Amino acid sequence: QVHLVESGGGLVQAGGSLRLSCAASGMFYSISTMAWYRQAPGKQRDLVAAISRGGSTNYADSVKGRFTISRDNAKNTVYLQMNSLKLEDTALYYCNAHTSTPIDYWGQGTQVTVSS
Q1: Smallest Cα–Cα separation from 99: which of 45, 23, 34, 35?
Q2: Rounded Cα distance, 39 and 22, in Å
Q3: Which of 3, 38, 40, 103 has the largest count of CB atoms under 10 Å?
């Protein structure tokens, strides 16, 4: 029902910035919550930031003050502005979305690599 496509990942030096985008397409009435998760090799997939349709946000403590999640409901797109990137931010970043159905939708992921 929902197809998610991430973009914006890449290689960046520590202290730099990246902006991730995730566009949703398919057949659905509306998307309630959209979120970004990340997973490094050998580690579990953890929540980075989430945003409701009304704009309420939630951030992992490790990114609070550095990352900003936002969304454009008209475009069914969620963004993640990542500033002051650190080596530990290196991971595969996944877009996640929920509709009114009890189905969890995931994108394929976009790689973010932070170098020293």
Answers
A1: 34
A2: 17
A3: 38
Nearest Cα residue to 42 out of 91, 85, 86: 91
Tokens (6 digits) for 45: 């997939």
Distance CA 30, CA 99 (A): 6
Residue range 72-102, pLDDT digits in tens: 989 999 999 999 999 999 999 999 999 888 8
DSSP reduced 3-state for 115:
strand
Number of helices (H), then strands (E), belonging to the chain: the values are: 0, 11
| Residue given tokens 């999640």 in the structure block | 69
